[in-house]
Amino acid sequence: MTIGFIGLGNMARAVIGGMLDKGIVKPEDICGSAKTEATRKKMEDSCKIRTAAGNREVAEQADILVLAVKPQFFEEVIEEIKNISWEGKTVISLAPGKTIAWLQEKFGQRLPVVRCMPNTPALVGEGCTGVCASAEVDAKTRETVMEILGSFGKAVEVSEKMMDVVGAVSGSSPAFVFLFIEALADGAVAEGMPRAQAYEFAAQAVLGSAKLVLETGSHPGELKDMVCSPGGTTIQGIKMLEKNNFRGTVMDAVITCVEKSRKM
Question: Which pLDDT score is estimated for 263?
Fold first, then answer.
């Protein structure tokens, strides 16, 4: 099985790194294309994969082809490769906003297509990827795709109508979390803590809190209550966040991302 990548940016590197770490494929079973020779050379040196300057060459070799370019370049790339023989091939799309129907229309045929939405924590093996597949994807290929997408974190099948929501609650939210970590650290710095130490405390607290939610299965509100002692410091902090509409603002941020994704 040959897995091809058109685009070798951060997400492609995360997927390739996960597959290689888990031994799903060997480096020689992966080929990829990128616009610049520097990017191709970097991937050849770091991951030992095969690369090509042309997208069509990669598409022709691949059994599973991963489209990992920016959404605005999808139509251009598809136009370049759509006339090759697609027998036995499956396409994986990493682009937000591009539906299965849209992809099949641009290819001009009902190809087996898997649409997925990974997020940047995939770069450290802690991704969360929403996945949906067209009816043309057979059970064996679906299993292979889920193994690939689970190699760098969690992969969860969802209905396609939920993909825009996945993009917001999983794809965009790391940026919100980074902003939250920065704000936590800024507060600590304001009270005299050195910045590097403040980032370490804040980031570890967020990591540990997320792990508690996932591993205990407890409701986040229940875990929040565990920290809030009567008359203590934490409940005063919660009061300030609620006073400034913290939860409502976060909800609005997620909803705004979903609305934007649906228009892409």
Answer: 84
Q: Please, which pLDDT band fits residue 99 given cuts at 50, 70 and 90?
A: very high
d(CA 30, CA 12): 11
Name every residue whose Cβ is closer than 8 Å to that of residue 73 and which is 6 or more positions away in sequence: none
Torsion of CA 160, 161, 162, 165, to 10 degrees: 120
pTM of the model: 0.87
Could you tell me where the DSSP H helices lie in the chain? 10-22, 37-47, 55-61, 74-81, 100-107, 139-149, 163-166, 173-190, 195-216, 220-227, 233-243, 246-263
Query: What is residue 66's three-state secondary structure?
Result: strand
What is the side-by-side strand order in the sheet with 3-6?
Answer: 50-52, 30-33, 3-6, 64-67, 90-93, 113-117, 127-133, 153-157
CA atoms within 13 A on the CB side of 67: 30
192 within 8 A of 117, measured Cβ to Cβ: no
Q: Which residues of 228-258 are buried (b: 16+ CB within 10 A; e: fewer)?
A: eeeeeeeeeeeeeeeeeeeeeeeeeebeebb
pLDDT at 262: 85
Q: How much is the pLDDT for 97?
A: 83
pLDDT for 189 equals 98
Q: Residue 258 in 3-state DSSP?
A: helix
Rg (CA), the chain: 21
Coil, strand or helix at 218: coil
Burial code of 175-212, b = ≥16 C-beta within 10 A, e = fewer? ebeeeebeebbeebeeeebeeeebbeebbeeeeeeeee
- Structure token digits, residue 92: 């994986």
